[in-house]
Design brief:
Elements lengths: L1 H25 L3 H4 L13 H8 L3 H32 L4 H11 L8 H10 L6 H25 L3 H9 L4 H12 L1 H17 L2 H6 L7 H6 L2 E2 L2 E2 L1 H21 L1 H9 L5
Antiparallel strand pairs: 1-2
Length: 265
């Protein structure tokens, strides 16, 4: 047992080392960040964090990413949950629908960037929140539907029949009985959808401008012609990681239940 804990500790440290190095680099001066070999006794400072918010509109980029990811996730979960319930309970050829949804996940998102950019530009929607939210929905919504199908299928149909005996419609049974039971799965799926939108780079690079730039694009812009602003880049990375960590910790109970609920029928 002791060797098991030692092995797990070493494996954890191995995967945490890059993150710890980024944290260390974000807390030292710009001069110290470029030193080779590194100075392990460098003075700790918060100047890099102050710099990204004062010298650059990083706060606006942070709010842009949060708003776009949150709205896209909410719409995806709202529509995806209702669609999954309808496919499981009401659709006649639900097998074909499932295959059709799965096929959409086989399309590489990179092949959609150019046609989608042309359509959005022709509609005059470039550099708007709406454009990026709709782009994220194109690959986020099918994933949410596919993930929630197993959770709704794990709910016995007898519950719907019992609701019908009590005079409930499909809509009332969905909101009052079925939805609370699949909430763990919805929460787990929502977390993953939010992370995907938060970290997405290709669509954000092509569909956003100065007004709607997101954090991944802002971090990439720190690779300048004069070189990589390594200290500010590490500080920006730590700031970008924090919301995902807080979100995961906040709903970890739902996340663990959601990852296992519906896996076995």
């Amino acid at each position: 047992m002791g060797l098991t804990y030692v092995a797990l500790t070493l494996i954890t440290l191995f995967f945490l080392l890059p993150l710890l190095w980024i944290l260390r680099t974000s807390l030292i001066t710009k001069v110290e960040a470029y030193k080779i070999p590194p100075n392990w006794m460098a003075e700790v400072t918060l100047d890099n964090y102050i710099s990204i918010f004062t010298d650059n509109p990083f706060g606006s980029y942070f709010l842009n990413s949060f708003f776009i990811a949150l709205v896209s996730t909410l719409i995806s979960v709202l529509l995806g949950a209702m669609s999954s319930y309808w496919i499981c309970r009401c659709a006649r050829h639900n097998g074909r629908l499932k295959v059709a949804i799965l096929v959409t996940q086989m399309i590489p998102p990179v092949v959609m960037i150019i046609p989608l950019s042309l359509v959005i530009k022709s509609l005059g929607l470039d550099d708007t929140y709406f454009a990026l939210i709709m782009a994220y929905l194109s690959f986020n919504l099918p994933y949410v539907i596919w993930m929630l199908l197993s959770h709704f299928e794990a709910i016995p149909r007898e519950l719907d029949d019992a609701c019908a005996v009590d005079g409930c419609t499909h809509v009332q049974a969905y909101f009052r009985v079925v939805l609370p039971l699949v909430m763990p799965g919805i929460m787990a799926t929502a977390v993953y959808s939010f992370i995907v939108c938060w970290n997405e780079f290709m669509f954000a690079l092509n569909l956003t401008g100065l007004n709607t730039r997101t954090i991944p694009v802002a971090i990439a812009s720190l690779d300048t012609q004069q070189g990589v602003m390594i200290a500010e880049l590490c500080a920006s990375t730590i700031v970008a990681i924090l919301p995902v960590i807080f979100l995961t910790v906040f709903i970890k109970k739902y996340l663990v239940q959601g990852l296992t609920f519906g896996s076995v029928k």
